[in-house]
Write the structure tokens for this entry.
Amino acid sequence: MILGVLAPVIAPFPAGKQDLLVTLTGPSSTHWLGADTLGRDILSRLLYATVPSLGYALVALAVFLLLGVPLGIIAGYRGGRIDSIISRVAEIAMSIPAVIILLVVLAVFSSNPVAAMTTLGVLGSPGLIRVVRGVTLVVREEAFVTAATVAGVKPVNIMATHLVRRALGSILVQASVFIGAALVVQAALAFLGLLSDGDRPTWGGMIGEASTVISLTSWPLVPPGLIIILTVMAFGLLGDAIRDATSDESSTTVRRRRRTATVVPATEKLDLHTEGHLLKVHNLQVSLDNEVRLVDDATFTVGQGEIVAVVGESGCGKSVTALATLGLLPPGLHVGGGSVIFDGVDLLAGGPQAYAAVRGRGIGYVAQDALGSLDPTHTIESHLREVILRHEKLSSPKLKERTQELLQQVQITDPGRVLKLYPHEISGGMAQRVNIALALAGRPRLIIADEPTTALDVTVQAEILHLLRDLQRSTQMSVLIITHNWGVVADIADRAVVMYAGEVVEMGDVYTVFKAPRFPYTAALLAADPSVSPLGERLETIPGRVPAPGNWPTGCRFAGRCPFAIDACVDGPLPLRIVPSGSVTRCIRAEELASEGVLDR
């Protein structure tokens, strides 16, 4: 393209200058690539033809990208009816014979090359829509997209920054292939005489002119044909190189990758509608495709300034409950009933608008995968600026000051340096600190942390837990932490909520749950956890496994693994109830087992 722009300066002859004495001659010292049918210098015409030839191909590419990328990302990210409409329209467009449409357009617009290339871009875009949609379907499930959503980042910003950048490799490959194809189509149409650009030469037009004298000499076909082949190959190699570069970056990123508790009054009726709770989750139900129930009765509360831990084995429904509370269930999962009330507002009843109003500013989120929650194509500063500007309108100096303040708040000692780094350049512990800073950017009243220390070593785990506890004390925010580690519960939580097979089976203040559990599953979990078991003692094991969703037994779901189960345990559904210790349990034998002391530690 640069050579084409400089053609008036570097070309040996003007594009239209004729010398009939040298018609159809081969390469010489005067005409390095020979002369054509009218004695015009082939090298000069190739240089002058560069701008129109590549320019028209770029027109097609621009239309191809402007339609394919936004529609593909919208279809993949939004899903549902929007996805169906865009996909069906794309499939219909792909079934239309492109050649026939091009010929019609050329006939209507008098062989106008811009109209032809615009049409080619429109006809080619459905293929790009499908590719970008496929990439987006995968990327939208990654942790950093969830983190951005919970932080309150608008969907349009998520699509325009995070999703586009992650799909960039595939987009560039498709673009490099398409621009080469557009160049070939343009040359073919010009060769057939279907494109007209006045007196300006094009590579395809030069091939068309040379074909008329192929019986006399084939040389005039070689230079334009060769330049088209080399240009198409160059575009392909460039796309592959960029794809490999973006893939390498992603691979690098992947590789690096107690306060006094308030006891519930000992009454038989369980009342979750008392005042003072910041978050109230009641009878929450989550189903897969509205058929298989994954969470059946998640019921718990989080008070203002309180740390509540939800604990249980893998597969008990802890993370699904957290995502349902946040309104971020993956495709296929649906809330089938219950309520999620935050600060007096029923988020489930309010729908997306209610959730949008509290994400980031009311509720923050810290994911399990520290590095995966950060977009590898953004610096730490870019992450923080995006979330801060979603909630506050700050000048550039104030914004810079706020980003450094957040990193200092999570005890990062050199915020100026860290702000300039990319996620793959920091450790897992520092990445989790950055995630906590992102959750704090909107000044939330509640943070939901989904196993925030699972992927970290023991020393860093302790640091992150102490950080969360210090932040809770300094800001008086509430924390809902999801974990399977009783050591984490003992270290940080005020109350514990135990889940088993999709339902809450016990709740109570941490001291009571540890010393006097009132559900056999809780006692078994504590006995099997090395972090809270006495040194030198043999760890207990729980026989069997958590029953799969859809195969839950009637009555107590732990009965098949419980050494204290009796026939009455499986006679029918067991409601939550308060027992004399102040704990909430589903066990119908809680008082009997407590009197025998078989569950106490």
